[in-house]
Every structure is written in structure tokens, then in C-alpha cells.
Amino acid sequence: MRAFRKVQSMAGLPAAFALAGLLAAGAGAQENDDFHLGEIEYEISCLSCHGIDGRGDGPDAAHLDKKPADLTSIARANGGVFPTERLALVIDGRDLVAAHGAREMPVWGERYRVPVPGVEGEFDFEADARAKIDALVRYIEGLQE
User: What is the mean pLDDT of the chain?
Assistant: First the structure.
């Protein structure tokens, strides 16, 4: 079952960014599997291009040279199997080989590793980035038709 909050306008994005910052600052192992983390990451990082329902029809899609992927058909395109690890690598983007061609989508792995202002002491940015990517992959898996 997929819970989806329909975004009525982009006016709520500042609050979403603030919430994401709080989540980044306090994300612990018990929160990493929270469905809402994936939903928030989708709304912040993906919705503008991939759209509310993940079909590649977001408000910024018309301004791109290449239409964003329809995220609802990933499993269907892979013989009915959702490619969890491969999708995580695509979202992360740091390990992709440049010889495979230009990358249309931003490298989110780098964005997720940006230090959060006000966070002091020991903080594992790599583990936090992985937790956000994993939550986002699980959320996208829930969009499959």
C-alpha cells in the first residue's frame, strides 16, 4: 500500500527542507527504515522532475533536454524484478563510470554527504547518505505498478 501526500504547490518546500535538515541531524539506525524518510527525500530530491506519482511529469520536466524516467515502471522493465541495488547506485551516482555516457540526473550521493550546519561531534555522513538512499529506493519500490 502506498501512502502519498499530494503536493498542492511548491510553497511547502522550505518546510520540507527544514524537516530534512532535522532528520539529517538526528537520523539514527531506528529511523533509517522510516517510510516517511523515503517520502520526504522523494519530495525534496525527485518530485520536481519525476512528478507526484513518479511518471516523469514533474514541474521541471518540461525544461529538461531528456524526459525523466517513469519510476513506476522500473520493475516491469526488469522482468518484474525491482533492481534495488542498481537503483541505489544510480541515485548515489558517485560510482558510475564516465565512459558509460553523460549523466542526466544529479549525483545525490554527493548532496547527501554535505555537512549539516549546527551538527557537532561525531556524525557518519556516509552512513547517513546510505540511509537516505535506501529509504528513497524503498519508497520508489512502492511506486511500482
Answer: 78
